[in-house]
Amino acid sequence: MTHPDAPTRQRVTQALRNQRIETPSWAYANSGTRFKVFPQEGVPRDPYEKIADAAMVHRLTGVAPTVALHIPWDRVDDYADLARYATDQGVTLGAINANVFQDNDYKLGSVTNPDPGVRRKAIDHLLECVDIMDRTGSRDLKLWFSDGTNYPGQDDIRARQDRLAAALREAYDRLGDDQRLLLEYKLFEPAFYTTDVPDWGTAYAHCLELGPKAQVVIDTGHHAPGTNIEFIVAFLLRAGKLGGFDFNSRFYADDDLMVGAADPFQLFRIMHEIVRGDALRPEAGIAFMLDQCHNIEPKIPAIIRSVMNVQEATAKALLVDADALAAAQRAGDVLTANAVLMDAYHTDVRPMLAELRADMGLDPDPIAAYARSGYFARIRAERAGGQQAGWGA
Ligand code: RM4
Ligand code: MN
């Protein structure tokens, strides 16, 4: 499969042209580890400047037309105005991410806190996020909870599930007809003994109980080492319960490195299940989002690189010869089946993507185009002074 034939190229590039990847507002801001945040020059000072950066990424890649917000990091007085500004820049506002993990009240949890007053406050924040969605036109409410415990006996594991279910129910019932609740899971951290939504099974069970507007979101960095994420993708897609992805890479824990950097083969395997499930089309409703932090590398080029990494994995997945694969699988021909997959994975899809970009009126090399654009020199000069945005690590 080193030289895909013309009909194959046509099919693949058409699918790639329609692909949509959402970038996260927080990836444009300063971030770091619990040891140190290294500030960078030209970093946005407010949500408007984050959106301007996201729009630049979209101008160069052509496939990143939405930007996710995180509340309260992106709180503004007038969300309709923010949405208008985004449209003027050529992008729209995407998922609204709730944040119930950075307030002192949440030391023992947010929606599962033993104190009903704290739970009320956390649920009210979730409801506020849906209010914001109404104003921004966002479809998705994305929920990640840091809730859990550090010590055996610290709290009642089962009661915390009851509290979680009650909170999710309130948020779910507040959703409009075209809105969704996407529930994220994470193995551990910041809680180290129990986590209230630690895995896809827990998230899936809660989403099933809630109803059709609740779906699971897979953050690729939120699993134990060696977890077969493509299995989870296949299972949830089949069940109609996959809402989207938070893409990033991990070596050890929730590293939030660039997607496709640590394990491009895993990303390919994930995208293969997406293609297999016919879920790449925007109408399939899967949100392909990045959730990353660029602590030491320049942020905008890193986000461009991440978008390109997703495109490359997708292109390879689209090149899998589905008929040959199915035939080999039916025949029990293990080696051929594996070879079909590996042929696609080993294809250099970069020339095809460069051609597609040229067809779309874009520079074939978005990273070089960014370097030439003068954008960085401009934001470095314009954004001197003021308080740089960051998530306060
Ligand atoms: C969490 C989770 C959420 C993200 C925050 C910043 O670990 O992945 O999706 O919004 O981090
Ligand atoms: Mn995430």
TrEMBL record:
An example Gene Ontology molecular-function term: L-rhamnose isomerase activity
Enzyme class: isomerase
SUPFAM superfamilies, sorted: Xylose isomerase-like
Gene3D superfamilies the UniProt entry points to: Divalent-metal-dependent TIM barrel enzymes
E.C. code: 5.3.1.14
Domain of life: Bacteria
Keywords, sorted A to Z: Isomerase, Manganese, Metal-binding
Pfam families reported for this sequence: AP_endonuc_2
Domain Xylose isomerase-like TIM barrel residue range list: 77-254
Cited PANTHER family: L-RHAMNOSE ISOMERASE
Protein name listed in UniProt: L-rhamnose isomerase
Organism encoding this protein: Micromonospora globbae
Lineage: Bacteria, Bacillati, Actinomycetota, Actinomycetes, Micromonosporales
